[in-house]
UniProtKB/TrEMBL annotation:
This protein's name: Negative regulator of flagellin synthesis
Taxonomic lineage from the root: Bacteria, Pseudomonadati, Acidobacteriota, Holophagae, Holophagales
Organism: Mesoterricola sediminis
UniProt family annotation: Belongs to the FlgM family.
Domain of life assignment: Bacteria
A Pfam family that the UniProt record links to this protein: FlgM
Amino acid sequence: MRVSIKSGGTGSGAKVSAGSSAPSQPASTAPAGPVSDALSVSSGAHFVAVARARITGIPDVRLDRVEALRASLDAEDYHPDPDAVADGLLKEYTPLPLGS
């Protein structure tokens, strides 16, 4: 924006123009040859992508196992090993000792 003030008699004021005061730059030209993009992925990133794709195919709940346990409970034929249950709980909820 350019503001110019003319000195003069009564009624003279500021003239405002909306032009740019910076010199105009020539428009850039497009490259003459074809432009292509490329993507390079490390072997570690590729491994993670493949693993993630395979994991998404695994259901969160193993319905076959749930149904088998439900059938055992309904038939009153479910008798878990109390020592195995206790060991599993300890492994799950006990923090690892330092140095492990």
